[in-house]
Amino acid sequence: MISGTEILTAAQMRAMESAAIASGAVTGLELMERAGGAVAGHIRLRWPKPGRVTVLCGPGNNGGDGYVIARALWQAGWRVRVLGLDNTAGPDATEMRRRWREIGAVLPLTEDELRCPGESSDVYVDAIFGTGLTRPPEGAIARILAYLGGSGGDWGFFRDRLVAVDCPSGMCLDSGAFLGTRRGPGEYDLRARMTVAFDSPKPGHLLERGPDCCGELVIADIGLRDWRCRAPGGRGGWRSQRPASLTAIWPDFGIADPRRSDGDDRRKAAWLSKRDDPGGHKFGHGHALILAGGAGQGGAARLAARAALRVGAGLVTLCPPAPALTEHAGAPDALMRRAVDDTGALRALLEDRRITALCLGPGAGVGRAAALLPGVLSSRRPCVLDADALTALAADPGLMGGLHPGCVLTPHRGEFARLFPDLDARLSGPQPPAPDLDPRDMARFMPDLVAYRAALSEMRGPAYSRLDAARDAATRSGAVILLKGPDTVIAEPAPRVLPDGPAIPGRAIIHSAFDVPWLATAGSGDVLAGIITGLLARGLPPLDAAATGAGLHAAAARRFGPGLIADDLPEEIPGLFRDMERITAAP
Ligand SMILES: NC(=O)C1=CN([C@@H]2O[C@H](COP(=O)(O)OP(=O)(O)OC[C@H]3O[C@@H](n4cnc5c(N)ncnc54)[C@H](OP(=O)(O)O)[C@@H]3O)[C@@H](O)[C@H]2O)[C@@H](O)CC1
Ligand SMILES: Nc1ncnc2c1ncn2[C@@H]1O[C@H](COP(=O)(O)OP(=O)(O)O)[C@@H](O)[C@H]1O
Ligand SMILES: [K+]
After folding, report:
1. If you placed Cys at 14, which of 188, 285, 432, 439 could pair as Cys (CB 3.0 to 4.6 Å)?
2. What ipTM goes with this model?
3. Global pTM?
4. Shared-domain flag, residues 177 and 64
């Protein structure tokens, strides 16, 4: 059910490159030539008339790409100025620098050269650091990056003409954070007009500062995708054979661009609209219980209930305490109401096995949520725990033991901090040291791609990321975690064991929705909880329900546009289903 693009961490990317080279399928020079050629091609697409370009080359292979770009643009008639560091690491980058030196000079990469009057360029290529950034830039390099980021008062100047190779330098590709600065927007974060990255998106392109600072993100194919499919163990498709450990769902949710629709999308559209079940019965689409709070608190639960209905749950029952029943008597009439005063009443209700999912939290009140939680958890029914249920959970860690893989916890950052204070502190705190595993060693796992990927997904980047935090929280709690934000991260607990295979860490998904800031509106989280509950009730596995829910939620906001209030979100869902069907039916 999950559709999206596979993402790779920086270590996975470097290891894959090493493995492809070790297999003899390609040389490092060929990969660098393709990478640099792709960037030059995208520059020429956006600036068709050859102009002046300054290429900034760092010490590693990112710099090596820069020398290739310089040569390709020079061959296309551009006036090229290259600023590079003296020390170039690695044979491939050294060779590319040598090839450029046959054409032109390499001036020192200093702020003075960058500022040099009369040398202003139409395009600046940032090839300083890519996936190999291991620690915060310091000294002269840090000043150059800050200057490009606008410390010289030229913020807009560079933003309009900076092309980043793999990422804006200084940004960690695993977290989207700039190393060495406090988390969150920095005054001089380097922001590109376009970022050309290779093979697959990395988490940092989608998280934290990534979407803003990368500008337009282009993922260039450098031939590794073919190699992955041909490699031993890779036959039949990379994704279908191994559970992808990371998946990105792009802002368009795979439905806005007909060219990207495939069989999976068609099946998904048919399932969502129930067209794949012509003789179906309402109970075949599940029965969701939304546990509401006392008088005066009902709006949030009603939003969730309405969303669960709209997303196709066969029946939805709203369960406030008896004194609040009359408050919930209004629309929609399709909603059933049933009083649930305490855990005993809940347990009695849950004897009906046709109830397939529960939602506790929106507007529940912390006291009532705490009282009902044991009943919800012991039913072992799929459930969404949101808002007050999360606060109740945080206040009584003993309840954590009752969580199970059918639970989806949907904290925003504040709730996450209450539930997992140590993980939250790591997200805000100083960066831990880089992993001591050398990704290049991973080539030895070839040709066993399963082991290779399992080992790699344990490798972490230099900055603790929202992805790491969600995965750690999922593993610790034994539940699916959906950490909300414009960069929502969804993770399932680890480990999962493949038959005859090693333990595979739980899958994770990034749903990046920076394009719909109007989704940050009161009650929008309640609607999300309702959508996910409806999908759980319909039988989607928890990770799928959470990912599909996050996608539908943002897509509904995108479809409505600015001015959105939470009540509008469920009403967009029928239109979304129609859009999905129309687009996936396109030839
Ligand atoms: N993967 C692929 O398929 C392909 C990858 N390709 C390209 O390779 C790039 C990755 O190359 P890479 O591994 O050489 O790393 P890169 O980003 O150039 O930097 C490493 C250098 O920086 C240094 N350094 C690190 N942090 C530092 C700091 N704070 N301050 C100062 N120095 C610091 C570090 O030194 P060290 O840590 O060893 O001291 C090392 O010298 C990738 O982004 C893509 O562009 C394509 O060519 C082909 C296909
Ligand atoms: N800037 C933003 N851009 C896009 N989506 C956002 C943004 N801020 C928040 N969201 C999304 O809006 C929802 C807000 O949920 P929540 O914080 O629980 O709000 P509430 O409690 O008011 O319902 C979440 O799904 C979150 O991912
Ligand atoms: K870069």
Report:
1. 439
2. 0.95
3. 0.91
4. yes
